[in-house]
Amino acid sequence: MQLKISEKEENVIITVEEERMDAHNSGNLKERMLQLFDEGKCQLVIDLAAVRFIDSSGLGALVSGFKNASARDGSLKLCCLQPQVRSMFELTRLHRVFEIFTTLEEALDSQS
Amino acid sequence: MSKRVELNIKVPSQTRYLAMVGQIGESLAFSLNNYRGNRRELAYHLNLCLTEAMTNAICHGNDSDPEKDVHITISASDDDLIIRIYDQGPGFEIGARHKVNAHPCDEGGRGVNIILKLMDNVRYVRNKGVNVLEMTKFLD
Predict the structure, then answer these.
(1) CA distance A61 to A64
(2) Nearest CA-CA distance, residue A80 and chain B, Å
(3) How many domains does chain B have?
(4) Are the beta carbons of A55 and B51 separated by less than 8 Å?
(5) I want to staple B102 with a disulfide (CB 3.0 to 4.6 A). Which of A55, B28, B41, B106 is the partner?
(6) Per-residue pLDDT of chain B (140 residues; tens, 9 = 90+)
């Protein structure tokens, strides 16, 4: 999975540069997040602007990151969801679990 | 489409083929002549259900053995669309998996529930070493 990692103050921004998140590539995101947690970086923002398709494996990877961030008193925020991707969070009720923002700036500006 | 369209696909039991098969489902949604619903939504749902069912067949049905195959048939008419996914392994218990919704913080267990929510009829039949997950979508 193509991921771009950048940092802004205490936040680490993970930009997913893939149209599709499924069982073939979601494990990479999960592993990369675990590496960041091991480095003590626990304030994550995941930019999903490029993602057109997400399945239960992709959602599972994000839930894994959310749980690990929360366990370390950190946070995992999502931003820039395309409508079909947003509908998957509603279908699985995960929109009640995650903080979801329209833009990256809003996610970075929000208080954890 | 006046006649039933039948697609017969066999791919190695590997997740790298998920995108290709999902895309076939999307293309099929846009080729249905008389479908009056939201075509983009149907395309996404077919991609998703094919992806979830194939992932189950690869990881649970075929026990992640890349030497095995996943066999998929798609049958479409003006009235309905029937997808069958065959696996060659010990199979999995759809009954046990779909009785409860995944807890919001569970990492797995959502795939079958997604299929059950989006398709109109779903059944998993195990018979003499051949397992088939059959999903039907009515197109009226």
Answers:
(1) 5
(2) 19
(3) 1
(4) yes
(5) B106
(6) 468 899 999 999 999 999 999 999 999 999 988 889 999 999 999 999 999 999 999 988 787 788 889 999 999 998 999 999 998 877 666 655 554 456 666 777 789 999 999 999 999 988 777 889 999 999 97
